[in-house]
Design goal:
Oligomer: single chain
Distance between the termini: 18 Å
Structural class: alpha/beta
Shape: globular
Strand order of the largest sheet: 3-4-5-6-7-8-9-10
Radius of gyration: 22 Å
Largest sheet: 8 strands, parallel, barrel
Strand content: 5-15%
Length: 461
């Protein structure tokens, strides 16, 4: 599809794009810092939209704080870097969130290289216990943690790190990943851990019990078919306007997942409302489409408002590394202005348009890491997607912008990914494939990207 045809289909004229996207500017990676101030003084502290959990009557903030991306001392996300977590900044983020009505904090023993629960516990323990709900997970992914003893040890260590004597929201983490039912049974049934967690809920040390779903739909359907037995208090699913009907890889359309929960009256906790940031880093022409509709709102806010508009949603999780992330999201939820039917359709139409771009469905979750051969897999895939969205992946040397795109791709590649960690070092061991929640054939994609890079270097595209 050529540029003129694409603009016609998205409903954005050339003049409109020119007015929205200035020459030399790069709005596709819209920065919260560029668009919004970190100052939260103009955001009301008493307008957070709350949803009621029917199991316990909890009044839960519709914006939930995902603790997977706490900031490091170098100002990066602890999910990306190896530096220590910036505890002072974590405390500031938590304080600002609580002051504006956020009361749901989601963590895991696996987040931030195992440091998230500790940092979260320090920050939250400075506030009265009735001011927040803690959600954590039994993240017993490794076979070495599948024994009853090891799994119970992980559960009890979570309480120690979080400095609490009960967990508000406890999840079986990422059911459906790996070997589907076989792995689920090994992690939770054969070792008696699900029975243990049910007993802990009965004793009050777990107030709400649920699970997060990735992957094999048979596991999701099995657990819901046994809802009368387990009485799930909530379920965490991936939901956004792209995944509603266009889930990729081994994921399931959110329309089905949400519908199954809604039929049973089970509250949904939403993860990946931004698809790991992909829905805030969209193609130039899609940015222009959003800006024409709502000039003063960030691209990301559309995705958050979409998730929150569904009435069966208890809370929408956002991993907020910077104060700008938090303040932008607070503006979306203090209070939530639900999307109209027309706006919902606008997003579904936008999703249809986005599916025409050959991006790789990587959410930058880093479950594929570390690579045994040192590749930075997420950085490689993210750079490729960035260049797709910027129009810097030319189809041939005859493309109008070939020279500019070639330079942007190759220079950006070397800046984003050290040479010894680039795609040409992949040997196809496939150890990463089983860990990918999106079921990406990572070695095949790396080979494709490496082939593209070599053609650019040799001038043979």
């Amino acid at each position: 599809m050529n540029r003129r045809e694409f603009l016609r289909r998205v409903g954005v004229g050339t003049a409109a794009v020119g007015a929205t996207i200035l020459p030399g500017c790069s709005p596709k990676e819209e920065s919260y810092a560029d668009a919004y101030s970190a100052d939260a003084s103009d955001i009301p502290t008493d307008k957070m939209t709350l949803r009621t959990n029917p199991s316990t009557g909890d009044k839960v903030s519709l914006l939930g704080f995902g603790c997977m991306r706490w900031p490091t001392v170098k100002g990066e996300s602890a999910r990306d870097g190896a530096e220590d977590i910036d505890q002072e900044m974590v405390n500031r983020l938590v304080d600002t969130a609580i002051a504006h009505g956020v009361n749901y904090f989601d963590t895991s023993p696996a987040y931030c290289r195992g440091l998230s629960e500790h940092a979260t516990g320090i920050a939250l323990s400075r506030h009265p216990r009735d001011k927040y709900f803690i959600a954590t997970k039994l993240s017993n992914f490794a076979p070495s943690t599948w024994s009853r003893e090891a799994s119970i040890g992980m559960y009890r260590n979570s309480m120690k790190e979080l400095q609490v004597d009960y967990i508000d929201y406890m999840l079986l983490h990422a059911i459906g990943m790996g070997r589907g039912m076989e792995e689920f049974n090994a992690r939770y049934i054969d070792n008696g851990m699900l029975d243990f967690l049910l007993a802990e809920r009965e004793a009050g040390r777990i107030r709400n019990l649920g699970f997060s779903y990735h992957g094999d739909i048979r596991v999701f359907d099995h657990l819901l078919a046994n809802h009368d037995k387990y009485k799930w208090d909530f379920v965490q699913i991936q939901l956004n306007y792209l995944d509603w009907q266009h889930a990729q890889g081994n994921n399931t359309n959110a329309e089905y997942l949400y519908g199954e929960l809604e039929k049973r009256g089970i509250p949904a906790v939403i993860m990946e409302p931004l698809l790991g940031g992909r829905l805030s880093k969209v193609h130039d022409h899609v940015v222009a489409r959003f800006k024409q509709a709502e000039p003063d709102r960030s691209v990301a806010s559309w995705a958050f408002r979409y998730a929150g508009t569904h009435p069966g949603v208890l809370t929408v999780l956002s991993g907020m590394t910077y104060m700008e992330h938090l303040t932008d999201n607070l503006r979306s939820f203090c209070p939530l202005k639900p999307l109209t039917d027309e706006e919902m359709q606008f997003l579904y139409d936008t999703a249809d348009i986005m599916m025409q771009y050959p991006t790789i469905p990587c959410n930058d979750c880093k479950y594929c890491m570390p690579c045994p051969y040192g590749l930075d897999i997420p950085a490689i895939l993210t750079h490729y997607n960035k260049c797709v969205n910027e129009g810097n992946v030319p189809e041939s040397a005859q493309a109008e912008n070939y020279r500019k795109a070639r330079q942007a791709f190759l220079v950006g590649y070397d800046r984003s990914v050290p040479k010894l960690r680039q795609a040409n070092h992949c040997i196809g061991c496939r150890k990463c494939v089983s860990h990918c929640p999106q079921s990406i054939d990572i070695p095949a994609e790396l080979a494709r990207i490496d082939g593209f890079v070599e053609k650019l270097k040799q001038g043979t595209l």
